[in-house]
Amino acid sequence: MQLTSILAFSEASAAPTGSTMQDEASYLCGSCGESICVPIDLSAGSRQIYVEDCPVCCRANVIHLEIDAQGGVSATSELE
Ligand SMILES: [Zn+2]
After folding, report:
1. pTM for this prediction
2. Structural domain of 28
């Protein structure tokens, strides 16, 4: 029982405001239309552009990530 209360406490201090910061986003592959989840490096800036190969059809997608002040993430993609 003691262990349980310690765990609950540390979760509460990690997110004191019940924040909904996302650390992943999903985009639709421009070639096959699959929804692909990608991890986000929140320390890399609020606007990020990078190229990633679709794990389904292997086409290169250019991913545009935008992170707003509330930590919301929007991802769009286009074929390279
Ligand atoms: Zn694809």
Report:
1. 0.68
2. 18-79
